TrEMBL record:
The keyword Nuclease does not apply. It comes from Tothia fuscella. GO terms for biological process: phosphatidylinositol dephosphorylation; protein transport. Its EC number is 3.1.3.36. Residues 1081-1120 have a biased composition (Polar residues). It comes from the Eukaryota. One of its GO terms (cellular component) is membrane. The keyword Transport applies. Keywords: Cytoplasm, Hydrolase, Protein transport, Transport. InterPro entries: Endo/exonu/phosph_ase_sf, IP5, IPPc, SAC_dom. This is phosphoinositide 5-phosphatase. Belongs to the synaptojanin family. It is found in: Cytoplasm.
Amino acid sequence: MSASIELLLKEHPHRSFALKTATHVLILQHHPTSSHTSNEYTEFISNTQNEGPAPRCIVRFTTVQEADLRGYKSLRGVALNWKVFGTLGLITIDDDVFLCVVNGVAARGIVIRPGESVRRIEGVDFYCLNSSQYDRLLNEQVNPYRTDHIDEHGFDERGEGLEVHPCLELKKLLSSGTFYYSSDFDLTRRLQKRIQDDKPTISIESFDAGFLWNSYMIQPIMDFRSRLSNREKDALDASNIITSAIRGFCAEMIIPSSSSPLQRGTYGEPARLTLISRLSCRRAGTRFNARGMDDEGNVANYVETETSFWSPTGEDSGQCFSFVQVRGSLPVFWEQPSSLIPGQPKITITRSIEATQPAFDKHFLNMDHSYGAVHILNLLADDRNKPGEMDLTQRYEEHIRRSVLNTEEKDAESDHRLLKYTHYDFHAETKGPGRYEAARGVEDYIHASAGAFGFLSAKDKEEHIKASSNGEYKIIRRAVPDTTQEGVFRTNCLDCLDRTNLIQTIISQMALRSFLDAENVRGTADFWARHGTLWADNGDYLSKIYAGTGALKSSFTRHGKMSLGGLLSDGVKSMTRHINGNFNDKGRQDTIDMLLGRNMKQKAVHLDDPINDWVQMELRRRAPEYSSTETINILIATFNLNGKTRGLQEDLSPWLCPPVGREQRGPEIVAVAFQEIVELSPQQMMKEDPYRRKEWETAVKNILNADAANLGSEGYVLLRSGQLVGAALLIFVKTNVLGAIKNVEGAIKKTGISGLAGNKGAVAIRMDFDNTSLCFVTAHLAAGFANYEERNRDYRTISQGLRFQRNRTIDNHDSVIWAGDFNYRIGLSNEKVRTFIDRGDLDGLLENDQLYLMRTRSGIRDVFDHYDEAKITFLPTYKYDVGTDTYDTSEKARIPAWTDRVLSKGNNLRSINYNCAPLRFSDHRPVYATFECDVQTVDEKIRERLNGELYRKRKAALGDPSAGVGVESSDEDLLGYEDADERWPPGAGASGGVERGRWWLDRDMPAQSTLKAPGNGYIPNPNRPPNPFVPSDEPDWIKVDRPSRPPSVAPRGSNKPVILPPTSSKRDSEDLVPQLPPRRPTNQSLPTQTPTPNNQYDGSPYTRPQSIARNGSISSVTSSIHRKPAPPKPKKPMLLSQPSSPNVVDERRSSMGFNAVNAPVVPTMRKPIALSVGTKNGSAGPPPLPRRTGTGLSFEDQRKQSEGLMDDDGDVDGLRGWEVLKPG
């Protein structure tokens, strides 16, 4: 693979870099004002929160033909590698913004299987976007050849220069040979996940952030990508500019045909044995700096290792194997500080059992969602010679006993434990004369789980597909799985390095041997030697990353025996680890934290696309011009068949063609869910028989088409079906809507017997109906009256663990409908339930329904949250005597319950009918529900045409930002604001760049265009400074002479309603009515009022109505002000350099987000109008304002309860003669 991306540089008028491919170009330009502007607000935030404003850059992605690349020059003479392989992202160091590009990779790629190759990153460079002062340091090279004389970062010392590049340590880390990337496939996901994705291309949305080491640096570009149109997203992905990197180990062994177990000839490509270890970045660090677990359940040194083997089986065919296992630090909160004294440093457990258990459960829940059942293999010592390891082992076992994932519920129909535990004291087991050869005895402890977990075995087939980018056809190999891996081994020792790697080698060999046995072949000695070499190299690499040296016991891993040289080498490595832990690991940890964005003062880069962002915003606003909405009908039907086949000959029309309104007859989509479609025998639980499902497909289709013929409408076709042993989901659609349906996918998730069996679990099918995504799920959850926690756990496993293509979950859809036997029961005795049924009191039963209580009245979360269920008007659907309407009369006397349910989620769904049907050949009653669903249709041609028009319009208005036009100020490039009303003249500088003299843009305050006086006789104060946002003692308005008016006292409750500004950031294109900017109070003392809740007007005529401005300050005048809507940026309140009073300080703190709930509300000053009270000449001044307390009552409450609102009723008389201040 050769570098196909050219790096270009432009110095004037602003420094810009361009990543140019043959067809497209990505341009990045630093904003000149983003890191040099400062004001009191930013200084205050920087001092209090250790962070300032985020650096901003302008970005643009376009075709080479449309880009203006005049002034750009190649870096051929500046950098040694002027062609690059992609970018790892952007990072800031000391207010400088750097672009990281990959400029060196291994000469030979690592091939996993044909069409999937991996490259090791061997060189990166960091280019400063805002300064050229580091250009001369770009060519500081890192030694790519690892030697025994290395510095703490694994590289030869080059001497200390007077000046070093700020990113030199990051460059050393990323060039260390432990980072890998692929431009062919998603390297963060294992093979089993990839082959379940029908689309072979890379999907950026599916990247596993836990293994994506450049996630922090690449996030700004990913955010920019999310704002692009679908066409531009595809072009950016195809350009390979965005690079995803994992850290760990990746290597291959080419197996000659003489040693390959499956290859029966010399045809085609050679067989390949590969090993990929993906190190998690969630709790990354060095040996003594990263131990144990965090509160999110992430553990240190967590590594997913995948052994894969691909072999050709013919000219155009092949077969692949994959087996995954994980290692990770013991999941409790523990620390082990480094020590200068040789020997094992003291281990400290830092939290109690109760405080640790939630994070412990999170860790294994995440593992269950990713892999299924988990077998824990603990290799720590259990003797008093190592008390630290013994304490950790005892704590580990206690947490496993307490874990909700390992609880055996009463009345459970099967073993539902998710965790299996084996303590294998490695040192005790290998003490004998056989030494490490005795470690193979671990196979006896894990043999049963290894057989239950299985492995991935898939056969390849070639297909010709059409590329979406250029329309050309290409050949791809698609693997069709025969078996899949259903569980995972989790191995740990103290460091998860030496002992762990040796045991994982044995487990990998067990799985690979089982695969070969299933194919009736055996591996040769040369084959197993290559396997051992791979694992020994893997242990060395992971050990160097975590501890700074190669792995111990690698001699046995490589050769199958321990030599004297191996023992001496282990001693040297142990001493080197001791030195690194005390002197070098802290610096390595700081570099890792910087790469992952964990430093306190580190600021992420924000990317602005002035043209495209505005275009996408306009497209959303003008969506009605290219989209329309229509309503379709959906029927969802669910039935637990209890393994019966008698219903195939019965009339299913009362269930599938129910008596509903004419509008719901003949729905466009019919989803039919079955549970226990076959008898759940032990043999059936581990596999599925599609014959019974196909029989029901035919029966259902005949019923639907017969009803369609009666209605005179189009017939139905089977769109897709799926099955998980006894659960099946069938989707039928009308023939006239087939053209509107695309991207149909299916997925399953097992939950029975710790995720190994399919007697319980879910089947899901999703589709796009025009531009609306729909998802249908049928589930059969755990049985048993008291096992509601087990059912809740099954739901969470399905909801979070079931995945479609592109890592899409169930919740990532516009509309979701669940239907099935959820097995939730009614929490009453049998007698009470039947009594309620006899008298028809369904509401009383529903009040005790477990699912209803879980969703509405319990504190339990993540159980059908945000789902709706229509009102239940039918009797419990379980359990009947077969063939009758009588509830269970057997010896078990099951309590009747609504086990069969339909729930939905989606703002575009409306439930119309919800009922059961009188079919009696099962012990359940079938349930059906009908919905109306609004689907959106987008005319892509009109949208693309409008997109082009808006793009050209915006580009003509702004010029090309990447060419330096219109970028004098950061404010011009802000997005999210509407065009100014055409009735208003353009602002100053509209024809060119923004003038720096625009005082109304100072400090991110919105611009103003028109003011309205607060009343007759008022004019703007000519003595006030022209900038209304600077502190001033002068009032906004002054009153000119006018005739005095007779005194009046407004009656109680006669105030005009207060108009509060909208809280949403969205603004309409019509004229707004904002508030006057706040005037800064001075040293005059202000009257203090008791605040009302949320600073709202409490309706009292004696309290001045206040309007809350958008910037959080209080404005005294409600004026009709027309202005161009401001961009949706965080509002930054002004600060007074010298606050004059505590009230002013409180107001300022409140505007900045301080917790000032109990602080008094300080109104802005307004001079009262002096009126005559009780005298002829009006010489007497107004009486003092009485004291009042806040009531929190609404206006209506105060009008009804006019008594007792004031502290002293006698003070009311003193208010006569005061004029009520009203909004102007």
